[in-house]
Design goal:
Elements: E1 2-6, H1 10-22, E2 26-30, H2 33-42, E3 47-51, H3 59-68, E4 75-79, H4 84-93, E5 97-100, H5 105-117, E6 126-129, E7 132-135, E8 141-143, E9 146-147, H6 152-163, H7 171-178, H8 189-201, E10 210-213, E11 217-220
Parallel strand pairs: 1-2, 1-3, 3-4, 4-5
Antiparallel strand pairs: 6-7, 7-8, 8-9, 10-11
Helix pairs in contact: 2-3, 6-8
The structure holds calcium ion.
Calcium ion binds next to loops.
Length: 222
């Protein structure tokens, strides 16, 4: 899951980026409204976390620009302005949810989870493909009751594959959703991580779940 974090306060931005990455999210950070708006309109994000009081452009303006381009990415506003009027204004402009600062990280995660499960993702925390299960809440991955230990990136890649069971995902799509914008698109990082996932998820078992579709990409099928 790739998140755009638009936040000008460096300490909050660093805190959120670090903790979200620990939860296997990929986070791009923009420090003002102009950069944030541009990033949201040009990249594919699964969610935008948007501070309302920003330099150059307000959160409200950013939402307007994203929605006027027909982008339906979920937007969660985080703001110190807790008054009802501001909240209603933001929701009317196209924000999906609103969280007043200060908030707990757990509450943020819960709100994000609710938005990410809407409408494309089935509302469940355990993904299952064949005899492989991945628990999005506890980060446990099991196959035939055997625990599989994955790195953060491997987990994020497997979660994205499993959420899109039987759908062929191109290398570009995987790069968009599982890696951040600093990744060199010409590196072999996708291939390398697919290979390491296969080693852990498929190699010890006779039935192979992760498939290469020649010239198109990868998919996971039970
Ligand atoms: Ca701010």
């Amino acid at each position: 899951m790739r998140i755009l974090l638009v936040e000008d306060e460096p300490t909050i931005a660093e805190f959120l980026k670090r903790h979200l990455e620990e939860k296997c999210f990929v986070v791009d950070h923009a420090a003002d409204g102009e950069v944030g708006s541009f990033a949201a309109r040009t990249n594919e994000y699964d969610l935008v976390l948007l501070d309302n009081l920003l330099p150059k452009k307000s959160g409200l303006d950013v939402i307007g620009e994203i929605r006027s381009r027909g982008r339906h990415v979920p937007i969660l506003v985080i703001s110190v302005r807790g008054d009802i009027e501001a909240k209603v204004e933001l929701l009317n402009a196209g924000a999906d949810d609103y969280l007043a600062k200060p908030f707990s990280f757990d509450e943020l995660l819960a709100r994000m989870g609710a938005l990410l499960r809407r409408p494309n993702h089935v509302a469940k925390t355990v993904q299952q493909v064949g005899d492989l299960t991945l628990n999005e809440a506890t980060y446990e991955v099991k196959r035939q009751k055997r625990d599989i230990a994955l790195t953060r990136k491997e987990f994020a890649l497997l979660r994205y594959l499993m959420r899109n069971e039987s759908i062929v995902l191109s290398r570009a799509m995987l790069l968009e959703h599982v890696w951040d914008m600093d990744t060199d698109p010409f590196s072999n990082t996708v291939e390398a991580h697919i290979a390491s996932l296969r080693k852990k998820v498929d190699a010890p078992f006779s039935r192979k779940l992760i498939q290469t579709v020649q010239g198109r990409g990868y998919k996971i099928t039970g």
